[in-house]
Amino acid sequence: MKRLFSVLSIMLLSSSLFAQTITVEEKQLVVTDNDNKTVSYNLNNLGRAVFGSADDEAKTRYLKFIRTWGANIILPLDKVKDISYKKTTKQIAMPSTAPKVGDYYYSDGTWSDGGLISINDDGTNPVWKEVKPAPYGGKEVIGIVAMTDPSRMAEADKAAGFTHGYVISTRFIHDPNNSSVHTGFPFTTVKFSYEAEIPLYLPGAKTAKTWYETNDGLANCLGLLDLCGAERLKQLVPAVYYSLVQPHPQTSSMWFVPSTGQLWDILANLCGDEAAKKLKEWRTVESDATYTCLANLQSDPFEIFNSTLVKVADKDKELLMRDDYDYAQEYPKYQPSDNSAFCKLWTSCFYEEEAVDVFYIGTQRANGTSMFECEPAWNDEDAYCRPILAF
C-alpha cells in the first residue's frame, strides 16, 4: 500500500510540473568546418538554398540558405568540410509552474527551478536557496530566465504570443571571421560596426531615462536585417547576424541583441541587490547616461551573474569574461589590469552617430570595488554579445 501511495504521489507531482504536452518538429542544418568544428542552424523557416560567388578576387563560392524570416545563412564552401540535415519530431511536456528569474531554460523550450525564492519587480532584495538546484539531466541548458515582468516586454513580442519574459543565453555570440591577425586565435568578442545610414535607423538612447524605456531589441535587429540584407549585416554587424541565425526552441522568438532597456532589466535581476538599486535610482535620470550612470560597487556583479551558471555543464555555458581576455590570449606576457576588470556587453541601441550603447559589468579590483556603468562603444570596437530571446 505504501509503495502504491508513493507511485501515485510521483505521478501527481509529475503531472503538476508538466501539465501540457506539445508536438514540435525541429529542422537543423549541421555544418562541419575544416577544423572539424560543428555549428547548427535552425531551418524551421527555410525558404530555399542557392549557390553564388562572392564579389572578391578569388570569387569564393558560397551556399546561401534563404529564410522566410530572420537572417540568411551564408556558408563559404572553401571552409566547409561537411553539411548534414537533421529533422526530428518529438513530444514536449511544458511546465505548469510559471518561470522565475534564474530558472534554467532548455533547448526544448521548457524550464526548471534555478533556486530563486523571491525578488522584487525592480530586481532588489533577491533571496536564493542556500543549495542551488541543478538542471535536469539529459537536457541542454541554453539560457537563464532573466526577466518575467510582462509590463516591461516589447508590445510586438507579446503580440507574437511571447508573454513569459526574456531568457539570456548561457553563451556568447561568436564571429568565426574575427580572429587575431598575428596568431589566428579566435576572439570571443564580436564587432558592431556601422555605415552612415545605420545609426539613423536604430533608436538612439542617450539619457538614462531613454536607456531604461527602450525595450524592443528584436525590432532593432530585424530592422537592421531589412536595411542591410544578410550579407552586409554579416560583415557590418556580426553581433546581430550571428544572433539571428542561432537555433532556438519553436516556442520562443529567435535570439537577438537586447535593447538598452531589456539588458537593463536583465542586469537588475541577475547582478545582485546593489546593482539593482543603482539601476532603479537611474531610471528617471534625464541626463546623459554615460556621464551619470557610473558606480563603484562593493559587491561583484560580474561574479553574481556568473553564479547563476554554476550548476550548468561546461559544454553549455561561457562565463562572463574580462574586457582584456582576448588580448591576454594573444599576448601571453600581458598582465591583467584593473582598467579592464569588466565585461562589456553590446546592446542594439546607438548612443550617437559613431557609437553603440554598452554596459560595463565589473568584477572586483585591487581597491575592493567593482565598476558598473553605462558607456558608449565607438565604431569598430569589440565587445561581448549575450543574446536574448522572448518566450
Listing every helix as H and every strand as E from the N terminus to the C terminus, the arrangement reads HEEEEEEEEEEEHEEHHHHHHHEHHEEEEE
Number of helical elements = 11
Distance between the termini: 42 Å
Mean pLDDT rating: 86
What oligomeric state do these chains adopt? single chain
Count of individual beta strands: 19
Rg, Å, rounded: 21 Å
Structural write-up:
The structure is a single chain. The chain starts with a helix and ends with a strand. It has helices at 2-17, 155-159, 198-201, 208-213, 217-236, 238-244, 260-270, 273-282, 289-292, 301-307, 325-330, and strands at 18-33, 38-42, 46-53, 61-67, 73-76, 80-95, 104-106, 111-112, 116-118, 127-128, 141-147, 166-169, 190-191, 294-297, 342-352, 355-362, 370-378, 382-383, 388-390. The chain contains eleven helices and 19 strands.
What is the secondary structure topology, with strand pairs?
Elements: H1 2-17, E1 18-33, E2 38-42, E3 46-53, E4 61-67, E5 73-76, E6 80-95, E7 104-106, E8 111-112, E9 116-118, E10 127-128, E11 141-147, H2 155-159, E12 166-169, E13 190-191, H3 198-201, H4 208-213, H5 217-236, H6 238-244, H7 260-270, H8 273-282, H9 289-292, E14 294-297, H10 301-307, H11 325-330, E15 342-352, E16 355-362, E17 370-378, E18 382-383, E19 388-390
